[in-house]
Amino acid sequence: MTTTNARAALHAADPELAGLIDAEERRQRETLKLIPSENYVSAAVLEASGTVLTNKYSEGYPGRRYYEGQQVIDQIETLAVERAKALFGADHANVQPYSGSPANLAVYLATASPGDTVMGMSLPMGGHLTHGWKVSATGTWFRAVQYDVRRDTGRIDLDEVRELALAERPKLIFCGGTAIPRTIDFAGFAAIAHEVGAVLVADIAHIAGLVVGGAHPTPVGHADIVTTTTHKTLRGPRGAMILTTEEYAKPVDKAVFPGLQGGPHNHTTAGIAVALGEAAQPAFKDYAHQVVANAATLADELLARGFDLVSGGTDNHLILIDLTSKGVAGKPAAKALDRAGVETNYNTVPFDPRKPFDPSGLRIGTPALTSRGMGDAEMREVGRWMDEVVTAAAGDDEDALEAVIARVRGEVTELTGRFATPGLTRP
């Protein structure tokens, strides 16, 4: 089926928008997607997410709705919930949050009151906005304190976390984040939370797929509440889930609805159910472990080419690069790489002296390239291309930079043409 035939109705009704979607599909097929929070969903997830389920409003929970006509919807949501519980080994699952940030807000609503002390990883160190950062509502409504990484290792020091927790006695402690390249010690965080009487929340949005694939330790059994998006390494649609012990099941459900939102997006719930079913298959474990192996290979290649990696490498899917020694900032490097077909995002690094919108680092990851079937050899090519473009971007010869970008762009196009793109049709 061609791209046009697959969206015949859209092309007929709105050719301008259809053309833009076609262009985005071509872009995704022909570039190397290295942003660690991005991935490719399967054709089955795409189909489930684009169904007539978008026509139905379903405020409430299965068996307890405020609208009639829920006979099928209740079964779909129940299927997603049961699959989530089985896959993660959790007592309870809520699959209704619209995205990761609302899921985290629901946790606050369920367990804390405005003005309570909450604790999370500092955003510039790799945490998330909703873990109490000052520009977030969570940093405005709550008294937020933050832990950092060690300057000498780039890693979390649990002794320092414990010292801060004992001094501040937070109601909530968040672990997890958006730019953490190392294994999270959930048991260690749980011990600290228990000692100070805090609720431990594990935000595994980035690593959920690695957790269910056995490539990263699970927080279930350690954290009271686990939040996650359903895309990223889990390869589902853009949504979220909250997993809890029985103790927090009812407060969390009440916080999601009616506390923060109305009816769930049923088409997204269906896509989540499909993705969870896919993640339960043996092949997904192979995928998760290959993501980690690919990240390790890419990190080794970058280290060999003189790149400085935060914490010295990676244990998971994510690599955080400090470009200071390369003589170029993250933003111009990311823009040059993008023109060469290598998609990254500029990112702050721990103790970054530069501003967040013009930081020193790049954040990259291997989930999407692994979904396309790429392995060790391709990771080494990617490392070489990144080195060539970044080196050229650090210079002051625009003609030389353009020549490198053009050459690498051609080589990237040749490589991507040899690997299928999950979920995307061929022209």
Q: Can you describe what's shown?
A:
The protein has 427 residues and is α/β, with parallel strands linked by helices. It has 2 domains: 52-279, Aspartate Aminotransferase, domain 2, CATH 3.40.640; 293-416, Aspartate Aminotransferase, domain 1, CATH 3.90.1150. Helices cover 47% and strands 13% of the residues. The protein is built from 17 helices and 15 strands. The strands form 4 sheets. Strands 4-10-9-8-7-5-6 form a 7-stranded mixed sheet, sandwiched between helices. The protein has a 4-stranded antiparallel sheet with strand order 11-12-15-14, covered by helices on one side. Helix 4 (43-49) packs antiparallel against helix 12. It is globular and about 65 Å long. The model has no long low-confidence stretch (mean pLDDT 96).
Global outline = globular
- Alpha-carbon Rg, integer: 22 Å
Percent in strands = 5-15%
CATH superfamily annotation of the largest domain: Type I PLP-dependent aspartate aminotransferase-like (Major domain)
What is the CATH class name of the largest domain?
Answer: Alpha Beta
Main sheet record: 7 strands, mixed
Structural class of the secondary structure composition?
alpha/beta
Q: First CA to last CA: what distance?
A: 8 Å
Order of strands side by side in the largest beta sheet?
A: 4-10-9-8-7-5-6
Summarize the structure.
With 427 residues, the protein is of the alpha/beta class.
Blueprint (SSEs and pairs):
Elements: H1 3-6, H2 8-13, H3 15-30, E1 32-33, H4 43-49, E2 60-61, E3 64-65, H5 71-88, E4 92-94, H6 100-111, E5 117-121, H7 137-141, E6 143-147, H8 158-168, E7 172-175, H9 186-196, E8 199-203, H10 208-212, E9 225-229, E10 240-244, H11 246-260, H12 266-279, H13 282-304, E11 308-309, E12 318-322, H14 330-339, E13 342-343, E14 345-347, E15 361-365, H15 367-371, H16 376-394, H17 398-416
Parallel strand pairs: 1-13, 5-6, 5-7, 7-8, 8-9
Antiparallel strand pairs: 2-3, 4-10, 9-10, 11-12, 12-15, 14-15
